[in-house]
Amino acid sequence: MELTGTPFVVLTAVLAIVAFAVAVWAMPRLAGSRPRLLARIVALALVNALVVLAGVVYLNASNGWYASWGDLLGTEARQETAAVGDAAQAAAAPTAAAATTTAPPVELPPLPSPGQRKQVYTYTGRASGMTGQIEVILPASYETAQAKDRRYPVVEAFHGFPGTPSGWTSKMQAQQSFDAAIAAGAVGEVVLVAPTITATATVDSECVNGPSGTPQIETWIAQDVPRFIREHFRVKPARDSWVAMGYSVGAYCATMMGVHHNDTFGAIVALGGSVRPDFSTGAPWPAGSPLAARYDLLAQIRTQPPPVAMYLQVGKQSPFWPELSAFLAAIRPPTSMTSTVLLDSGHRWDLWQAEMPKVAAWLGSRIPGFKPGTG
């Protein structure tokens, strides 16, 4: 019986209901002596345990945290990997439109926390009008005298929902992963940028632009945040030095950056995401509207594959697998794809975190602006 299958979910629910009914029937008959009191306590504990179990099984089936019994028991995850196309060529290829950039200021603004690698800003975007938090993790060498003229590649990283930018430095441990890869000579130093991707913490934005008068999240992460980084830090301008990266909902955001904003981002890394926005409480636009069509990335890549290098980690047990499988099958030049397909693993932090060393190595070996010694 599969861990996430309907039969197992129904079985645990039925067991909880039966245990509750039996407990209700038995309680009056277990009054009196100490042994009977102990039996009442055991019966109530069993009912509560089965109710909690049924709830956990249902939530796991809905969210896909653990996809199989082997995944739950910690057996080694089975994976399939594949690579299609030339990632370096895709990341550096010319695009139809040049990114909208501004000349870097002669003198950059001072850091809010000099001497610290983590810098935190609250910024209002000029294009989107949105105010949000941006966390920046600087390379270890950034403030040294030897690096005063050095420019660095950028990883713009998107968190999941619910979540905050600090998910990248806490649970995902991105700084530690990159530092270890840099020390090993696998990748050059990077500026890691983590902006908020929600206008309201309780509303899943899926990184889209809603109708006029609603939050314009796509514009915020695709235009405002890159402009802010160029105006505040010594970063490389070329698209092969800019990567969009995300996990869960943020993975959809990263893929969307590669499809619609490859003038800025030459490569993307998507861990555990989808290729269509998933609005559990209803989309912000009518079905069939132009906005809805824009955010169907499977349809977009089938008709106009972008010049971008993609790194995707996807789960075969994910409810999004059919469309993800079709997305992988649709890849053709000028798009490049490196994929890791988890055969029986779920949707959770430790899986994405474990992928980070491979992500850093892929960036350093395949994406020109991230190669060691190119600063």
Structure commentary:
The termini are far apart. The protein has helices spanning 6-26, 34-63, 69-73, 87-92, 174-183, 217-232, 249-260, 290-294, 297-303, 321-330, 349-366; strands spanning 79-84, 118-124, 131-137, 154-158, 191-195, 242-247, 267-271, 309-315, 336-342. The protein has 375 residues and is an alpha/beta fold. The mean pLDDT is 85. Strands 1-9-8-7-6-4-5-3-2 form a nine-stranded mixed β-sheet, sandwiched between helices. The chain is globular. β4 (154-158), α5 (174-183) and β5 (191-195) form a beta-alpha-beta unit. The protein contains eleven helices and nine strands.
CATH class of the largest domain: Alpha Beta
- Radius of gyration based on Cα positions: 24 Å
Task: Provide the helix percentage.
Answer: 25-40%
User: Strand sequence of the main sheet, in spatial order?
Assistant: 1-9-8-7-6-4-5-3-2
Largest sheet: 9 strands, mixed
Estimate the strand proportion: 5-15%
Global morphology: globular
